[in-house]
Amino acid sequence: QLPSGTSFYGTGEASGPLERTGKRVFTWNTDAWGYGSGTTSLYQSHPWVLSILPDGKSLGVLADTTRRCEIDLRQESTIKFAALSAYPIITFGPFD
To answer: Any idea where the Glycoside hydrolase family 31 N-terminal domain is (predicted)?
Structure first.
């Protein structure tokens, strides 16, 4: 869990705004022809989240997996990754 007020970006190609705070995204490549605002997977999968902390610093979190992965950002200031197999979590930062 990160400080309250942290915002989240990243997660690969998904429809909707670039900010993913409060969203759940599935990283799984699909040919999403005719996609709409509710489509959660498009053409590229990146199990990566960029966190912008309230003090302006940034922190990156990567789930090192090629499997279908759920990235759940619906709980405030919390990043949850879920996949069917074990995987390492790699963090980068925080950076100014």
So the answer is: 2-72
What are the CA-CA distances from residue 46 to residues 4, 12, 53, 54, 68 (Å)?
Answer: 25, 4, 21, 24, 10
| Residue pointed to by tokens 């997660």 | 11
DSSP one-letter string for the chain: ---TT-EEEESSS-SS-SB-TT-EEEE-----TT--TT----S----EEEEE-TTS-EEEEEE--SS-EEEE--STT--EEEESS---EEEEEEE-
Of the pLDDT bands very low, low, confident and very high (cuts 50, 70, 90), residue 94 is confident
pLDDT of amino acid 77: 93
Q: What is the mean pLDDT of residues 21-45?
A: 76
Question: With bands split at pLDDT 50, 70 and 90, how would you rate the model's confidence at 41?
Answer: low
Domains and CATH numbers, the chain: 7-92 (2.60.40.1760)
